[in-house]
Structures are given as structure tokens and as C-alpha cells.
What does this fold into?
Amino acid sequence: MKRTTHWRRTLVAWLVAVAAVVAPATTARADDAGTPPKLADGFGLTQVGDSVGTAHDFYLTVTTPQVAGEQHIKIILPSGYYDDPERRYPVLYFLHGSPDDPVQQTYPALSMSDQMITVIPDGGARSWYANWLNQNTVLGAQNWENFHLNQVIPFIDANLRTLAAKKSRAIAGISMGGFGAFHYAQARPDLFSQTASLSGDIDLSANSMDLRMAVVASVTDALGAMCASSSGTCDPNNSPYKPGVDSDALFGSPYPVFNVDWRWNQVDPSQHMDRLKGIGVSIYTGDGGGSPLNMEFWVSGASKNVKARMDALGMPYYYGDGSGWGTQCDGSHSAGCWAQDLLDLVPRLERAFAS
It folds into this structure.
């Protein structure tokens, strides 16, 4: 009897000692180490090197046959992501503008949510979030839509604790990314429950030839017009849009003659807003100070055209006129305004996901 009791006490003491050593180490690897989690290759994506950043805010570099070169994917995890290994989260896919990069997307609002994961995939300097018509230019493969919708989304769902359903996905973007957000939601309404354009090029119809030509300028590396359409830093002497390619490479001929521009009309968000029925739509815009010299003047016109189209269709939407809100926004095509837009958008997305 004494032997059995002594053996049990010894076993309990041993288990307690092991737990004291093992448990802290496991917790440290999950959260306190400060290093990004390891993600597994798949869905056509191959990682290059290690992820860079912290356990909650990091980016990885991938290659894919769909797009030439190396691409970044930035991931921002909620502050409590490692605390509850059973909890799953909705996802915001955020599309940057031209000619930006995911790593440069440091808007405070993107890191303030503890309710959702934010994923910022590379959109290149001038991808326009599309599968290009001409895949044989000097740029190589340019199937950005395939990359994002068919590879990045399932890659994220496979590697992170997401709620992998339409109800729990949103897509939003700035400038070029605003076009991408509406274009992707229209192309795959089964994937997203919310979409938002922040100063987006969301009217590429023949009635908005100024914006259509801005897109062409980025494709052909037309200085001046190209920089005027930029949402990032654009130095005409060190162009991020080199090498320029033919104006037809993206969507075919942009000129509205004998319907040769039909592919532009096919992807123009303003002409297909009915495809977003049942999806929460948000439009943010400034006014550019009323000056045609400011890019926001033109995208504001595009936003108003889309608003009128939705009114005609009887569709609900949220329209944020951020011309003067916040201390850093003067209504221009600028990061200060988008930072304010996101401070409004992120809590609204959280509420929509929770409803």
C-alpha cells in the first residue's frame, strides 16, 4: 500500500515538473517569440525565403506561374489570434493603389482590428487587378485575377484560422485597388459579402475617357499623365512603370470606335453594378478641391456616376464624402484621406461581419 502511494506521488510530481517546463515553451512558440507563423506552400504559390515582420504583422514573398517575378503578401493578424486556437476570423482583402506595394500599406486602421484578419496581396505597379489580354509582352505572365482569386484566397484559408465563407470576406481597395475591389466582387460575388472603393477608378466607360487614358498611361509608361494617376510616389525620372508596353495589352483597344473597346466595357464596374446586389457596397471619395489638376477630381466624378447608377437600380450603399474630415485630409488623392476613410470603414466591416 505504501509502495503504491509513493509511486503515485512520484508520478504526479514528475508530471507537474514536465508541465512546468513544456507549457511555457509551447506558449512562447505560439505567441511570445515574436516571429511570423510558418505557412505552407500550395495552390500554385511557392514562398521565397522567410517571412519578414512580427507574429502579428508580417509579409511573405511568393512566386507563381500566373504572374512574372516575386510578389509580396502582407498579413495582419488580430491581437488575440494566438490566445484561442479554436477561434476563426473573417478576412478583409485590401488592394493597394498604383504603383504601391503591400509592405507600404501602413495605415493605422488596418492594424487596429481585433475582430478580423487583413490580407494585402501584391498588385504590382500597374496590374489593374486583371488577367491581361496580352500575356506575351516583355512583362511576362500577367494573370493577376487568377493569382488573387484562385491562389491567394485558398492559400490564406488553408494556412490561417479563417471563416472561409462569403459572409466572412470583404474586399476593399485604394485608387487602382478600388477598381480591383469592385471588379473582383463583380466577377466573383460568391466570394465576398462586402466591397469598398476608396478613391477608386470605378468608371472606365467612354464617358470617363480621362480615367481610361490614365490606365493606358500606366501601361504604356506615358510620363506626366502616368504620374497624375498615381496613388504612390511617382518620379518621372525614375518611372515605376517601365518598361512600357502597347496600349492594347491590358484590355485591348481603349478607343470607343465601332465597339472595339468592348473588353473595357466588360470590366468597367460602373456598367455592372447590378452584379453587386446582395453585397454591401461602400464608396469613399474626396473632391480634389474642385481642381482638374488633382486626380481626386476625376475619381470623384467616377464615384458620383456609380452612385447615380446604384440609385437608378434601387440598390443600397454607403457613400462617404471625406472631402474635409479628419485633420490630415483635404479632399485630395492622398494617403491622409485614405487613412481617415479606413478609420470609418474598418469598424463598419466589423459590425457587418458580426451581424
Remarks:
- The beta strands are 46-47, 52-53, 57-64, 67-76, 91-95, 117-121, 169-174, 194-198, 280-285, 318-321.
- Residues 1-32 have pLDDT under 50 and may be disordered.
- The two ends are 61 Å apart (CA to CA).
- The longest helix spans residues 2-32.
